[in-house]
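Annotated sample (chain length 80).
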Amino acid sequence: MRGFEPIVWLSPTRRSDVVRVRRHTCECVPIIYELCHSGGLLFIRRTVRNAEGPSIHESERLITVRMEALWERLITGQAR
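Output written by the structure step:
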């Protein structure tokens, strides 16, 4: 059995003022993932909610076909 594909989580950047959320996971759990579109590229935003407040990180920005494949692996448990 293969291991999980690691996602490198980076500090959020403000490359563009317009960020559109295309998909997201359930907000009823402490960790929320959002598939975001900005400046012609996609990225995943991870928000971890805890007692100290939310911690937000983002993946690298990729072209649509590559990021949608990574998003699919993330939500099926093959990446994290």
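Annotation: Residues 20-75 form one domain.
Annotation: Residues 4 and 78 are 5 Å apart (CA to CA).
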